[in-house]
Structure formats: structure tokens, C-alpha cells
Write a structure and sequence with these properties.
This protein has helices spanning about 5-15, 15-25, 30-40, 45, 80, 85-100, 105-110, 120-130, 170-185, 195-215, 220-235, 250-260, 285-290, and strands at about 55-65, 65-75, 135-145, 150-155, 160-165, 240-245, 245-250, 265-270. By secondary structure, it is α+β, with helices and mostly antiparallel strands. The strands form three sheets. Strands 1-2-3 form a three-stranded antiparallel sheet. Strand 4 (about 150-155) and strand 5 form a beta hairpin. It is elongated.
């Protein structure tokens, strides 16, 4: 088997280099047999969909012991996202990530599952079976110490997944309530300390120009800007947001009250399905014609 054979098989099928190499190994270098192997595995069908935009799918959060993972797995249509086979595949995939704890997306995709397949091969196989492009878009691993607690919340069947980590308490219900709040309120960061100086400067400059346009005296503009920045923090920083179950208290105040002033929210992760993906309008007639062809 040569690089030339692998390249030719790739041109014939559109499959990835490693898939072509493995198929040629299995076929003892026979190109036609290797192409047939790829078709049987659904890899050719999946490869033809490589340029499709996968913006549907699901998010999922899982915890086990002192480890948690939040992940997003995408497909092309909401119909497939609700399919039991897709949901089962995602569950197996995320459980694997929780077990092996990869440090990066690349490491996760190359990690070996129990059947010996890499995650990348596992996804490609299911993409072929289901008939849509499937991608593991992102995941985040979170670890905690004994005596700390995770709060996990899944919203709308996977449209949003959130995870919180509290120290100084074992109150899982409190941690989950805060995770639920994060799902609903969509904070940009945990606290005002995490707001970049560039964002602070940008917001302050916008407020300054608005106030000048309104004819506010220069000597009071700085004080007004301070008030507006505090409002900005209360809208965007999780700890300063009005708590969704009791808007008379901030999230920080609610945590303090419910824990006897012992708990501290140290981290949260929020994944919303498809955020940041540019979607395109789909011509469903053309899609059907392509599949029939």
C-alpha cells in the first residue's frame, strides 16, 4: 500500500486519509474492494456531506464523582436531533469523554472507545448510518475536590446545558438552582473581575457619547457612567444578576443566604446549541434530489 493508493482512494470516495488507509489495509491494497468497504461503513456517504453546515443537534451535561463534562454535538436537522439513535450516540460519546477526560478537542477525537474505534471514527460511522453530517463541536471538562459540589441543568431537551461548581457546601439543589439561573439569564461572565478592560472601556465610551449627545454637563458624566457600568455588571455578571427565583436578591446574595455564608460559586459553564454558528437557508427540494442522486 502506497501514499499514491491512499490519495487515489480519497479522490474516489471523498473519505478521510486515515479511513482510506484503514480500508486499504483491510482490502490488502485492492482499491475497488477498499472503496466498497468504505461504502458499507457509510464513510463515503458521510464524506459527501463534509461541506454541510451542522448547526442543529444537542448539548449534554454529565457528572460522575469529581468529574463533569459539558458537550455539544451537532447534526444538520432538528428532525435527526430528536432521533433516538442520535440521542443514544451522543450519550455514549459524552460518557466516553467523561471517562477518559481528554485535555483538548483533538485529543478527544483521537481517543479510543471500548470497541477500539477512535471517537472520530465512531462519529463518521454514525454520520453514515444516520445520513447527516455529525460533529463533536466542543466540550469542557471540569474537576472538583471532595467537599465541593456540581450543579447540572439541561434545558429544553438539550438546547442549553449548564454546569456550576460551588465550594464550601454540599448543597446540590443550590448548585442546580444556580445552574438553572445561568441557563435562563445567559451571563457573559462569572464576576466583574472577569470583564476585560477593553469591554469596560468600550461600554464607558458608548455611555459617554450618549450622555454628551443628551447635553449632560461634563462634571456629572463620570458619576452617571459609574451607575451605568454597575447596571451593565448586574445584567452580564452571573454573581450580580437578580436571582431568577427571587429577584430581590443577587445570585451571590442567594448563595450566601442558602449556605449560611459558607458557599462560593467558583465556576460555571453554559453551552447553548448552535451559538456562534452561521446557519444558511436550506433548499429542501435540492437536498432530496441530492440524496436520490
Amino acid at each position: 500500500m502506497s501514499l499514491e493508493q491512499i490519495t487515489k482512494l480519497r479522490e474516489m470516495t471523498g473519505a478521510g486519509m486515515m479511513d482510506c488507509k484503514n480500508a486499504l489495509d483491510e482490502a490488502s491494497g485492492d482499491l475497488d474492494k477498499a472503496a466498497e468497504i468504505l461504502r458499507k461503513k457509510g464513510i463515503v456517504k458521510a464524506a459527501k456531506r463534509a461541506d454541510k453546515i451542522a448547526a442543529e443537534g444537542t448539548t449534554l451535561v454529565k457528572t460522575e464523582g469529581n468529574t463533569a463534562v459539558v458537550a455539544e454535538v451537532n447534526c444538520e436537522t432538528d428532525f435527526v436531533a430528536k432521533n433516538e439513535n442520535f440521542q443514544a450516540m451522543v450519550d455514549v460519546l459524552v460518557s466516553h469523554l467523561l471517562k477518559v477526560k481528554p485535555a483538548s478537542l483533538e485529543e478527544g477525537l483521537q481517543s479510543k472507545m471500548e470497541n477500539g474505534q477512535s471517537v472520530e471514527e465512531f462519529i463518521t460511522e454514525h454520520s453514515g448510518k444516520i445520513g447527516e453530517k455529525i460533529t463533536l463541536r466542543r466540550f469542557e471538562m471540569v474537576s472538583k475536590e471532595d467537599g465541593e459540589v456540581f450543579g447540572a441543568y439541561l434545558h429544553a431537551g438539550g438546547k442549553i446545558s449548564t454546569l456550576t461548581l460551588l465550594k464550601g457546601t454540599d448543597n446540590e439543589e443550590l448548585a442546580r438552582d444556580v445552574a438553572m439561573h445561568a441557563a435562563a439569564a445567559n451571563p457573559k461572565c462569572l464576576s466583574r473581575d472577569e470583564v476585560s478592560q477593553a469591554d469596560i472601556n468600550k461600554e464607558a465610551e458608548i455611555y459617554r457619547e450618549q450622555l454628551k449627545a443628551e447635553g449632560k454637563p461634563e462634571n456629572i458624566i463620570d458619576n452617571i457612567i459609574k451607575g451605568k457600568m454597575n447596571k451593565y455588571y448586574s445584567e452580564n455578571c452571573l454573581l450580580e444578576q437578580p436571582f431568577i427565583k427571587d429577584e430581590d436578591k443577587t445570585v451571590a446574595q442567594y448563595i450566601k443566604e442558602q449556605s449560611g455564608d459558607t458557599a462560593e460559586l467558583v465556576k460555571y459553564v453554559r453551552y447553548e446549541l448552535g451559538e456562534g454558528i452561521d446557519k444558511k437557508e436550506i433548499d429542501y427540494v435540492k437536498e432530496v434530489q441530492e440524496q436520490l442522486g
